[in-house]
From TrEMBL:
Listed name of the protein: N-(5'-phosphoribosyl)anthranilate isomerase
Pfam families for the chain: PRAI (PF00697)
Domain N-(5'phosphoribosyl) anthranilate isomerase (PRAI): 7-210
Naturally occurring in which organism (per UniProt): Silicimonas algicola
EC identifiers of the protein: 5.3.1.24
Pathways per UniProt: Amino-acid biosynthesis; L-tryptophan biosynthesis; L-tryptophan from chorismate: step 3/5
PANTHER family the UniProt entry points to: N-(5'-PHOSPHORIBOSYL)ANTHRANILATE ISOMERASE (PTHR42894:SF1)
Amino acid sequence: MQSTVRVKICGLRTPEAVAAAAEAGASYVGFVFFPRSPRALTPDEARALSVDVPSGVAKVGLLVDADDALLDDIDRLVPLDMLQLHGSETPERVAEVRTRYGLPVMKAIGIADAADLSLLDDFAGVADQILVDAKPPTAGALPGGNGLSFDWRLIANRRWSLPWMLAGGLTPSNVAEAVALTGAPQVDVSSGVESAPGVKDLSLIKAFVDALR
Ligand SMILES: O=C(O)c1ccccc1N[C@@H]1O[C@H](COP(=O)(O)O)[C@@H](O)[C@H]1O
């Protein structure tokens, strides 16, 4: 299958994983700045890793309800191309972050059932992209990176007002089906290309991208 689906590999922590994502053909790599995540990096660690990212591959910083102090540190140290806001940020906060840092913002929205779909429209005219993820299973769970899918039929045939990306429980085995069902132009994966939480498997990264080609 020939495909132009753009891929983001998130939660990279080593130069080897960055190289595997770039060589496989990923369009984006994600650095997680959420301390509770097994994939968390400090701004200094992300700065060191960013040197290994070839030009043409966008570096995305993932944050969860981050305050300006953390964002200021990241902005000072890490040459990012996009911010992914994966918490309960409001449209007002998204607009504020976008203006303050001068970077495109991708807002993550968690979906569990049809009632959540209206949230997707709340960020039109504010965010640059929408990331559609599964809603976390419980209040204490990580807000993402749980390897959980939602019912993709909920967004099949949807008309989108913004560029968007599908996430949540994607793997080399199911990503082609997810794209066929939803028409997703872009996909994001973290735990589906890992051998353990926070440990990327280089062959799974390649298999994930190959599954769309
Ligand atoms: O990856 C994380 O640790 C993470 C932490 C906090 C918020 C989001 C996180 N990851 C994002 O979650 C989705 C789905 O991940 P998975 O493929 O189901 O593991 C994805 O967008 C990641 O960028």
